[in-house]
Amino acid sequence: MLRRKPDAQPAWRIYLKANAILLTVVHFTALAGVLLSGWSWTGLALAVTVYYVRMVVVTAGYHRYFSHRSFRTSRVFQFLLALGAQSAAQKGVLWWASHHRWHHKYSDTERDVHSPKVRGFWYAHIGWIFSDAWNTTDPRLVPDLYKYPELRWLDQDGYQLLPSFALGLAFLLVGGTFGLVWGFMVSTVMLWHGSFAINSLTHLFGKRRYATSDDSRNNWVLAILTTGEGWHNNHHHYPSSAGQGFFWWEIDLTYYVLRLLAMLGLVWDLRRPPDDVLAGPLARRTRAEPAGFASAARSEASREGLGTLPGFPLH
Ligand SMILES: [Zn+2]
Ligand SMILES: [Zn+2]
Predict the structure, then answer these.
(1) CA 6 / ligand 1 centre spacing (Å)
(2) What SS3 state is found at 268?
(3) What is the pLDDT of residue 199?
(4) Contact indicator for 46, 52 with CB cutoff of 8 Å
(5) What are the E-state strand segments in 30-172?
(6) Residue 120 Cα to ligand 1 middle (Å)
(7) Residue-wise over 196-209: b if at least 16 C-beta within 10 A, else e?
(8) pTM for the full predicted model
(9) pLDDT for residue 82
(10) What mean pLDDT is predicted for residues 32-37?
(11) In the predicted model, is pLDDT for residue 288 greater than 60?
(12) What is the whole-number distance in angstroms between the Cα of residue 35 and the centre of ligand 2?
């Protein structure tokens, strides 16, 4: 059985870490770039467009492929997905997937990586990333990915940020300072908070369709802002689905792109929840749940969703 200690560090120590300072510097650099080069609606349109393209890559790569293996692809496209995901500067795909699988295993319990219910909003949103407790990648959580030397290489400290440096340089060469500030810096900051919001806000605000053992919620506003990831209660109910919008009215841009890639033959075997999983079990209430609801037994569907990961331990 895997054992990892939950984070017990005081908040001030977490927020004084070198990578926390680096992230703060990037925020201020993006802000300074906008202030010095002047406000631009064209720049904002560029940042938003680039943000949506990058969010699809982040969610298809880091989350739906590497963390949940919700579709299959070739080894070459797998590596391209890793490069694309890591251009978002959210560490290596092995690190990302290992911690995300841990989140699903212990959602909203003391052992969760980033539960806003247990450790508060800011820790769940950003603090956990800087904590020593979650610094390293545990290969036992990602044996199906760890066997690829190219992914292990890209996961190393010295190389994790190479894809994002390359993307930043490409924006600078093509679009000059304007391209670097709006296309890369601003979109990167937006991408961080869009991704972080899934860990924080979707466990706090929205409706609960399914009786999962955590406090995950479906939130249509976040689904639009995060290319489908806002259907987070659906996702915790059946994590191995390639689509997180389970019904036609649940907008899921990442899934539409995956369908397109499947038509082109670049990915295949996109998983969807079977009918009995779609049917329930349903949550008793759709808004704020009473305290203690999260202690209910994990639904069989969410167990099955995790259990489909090759080599991923359930206990
Ligand atoms: Zn979650
Ligand atoms: Zn997930």
Answers:
(1) 17
(2) strand
(3) 93
(4) no
(5) 72-73
(6) 14
(7) bbbbbbbbbbbebb
(8) 0.86
(9) 97
(10) 91
(11) no
(12) 36
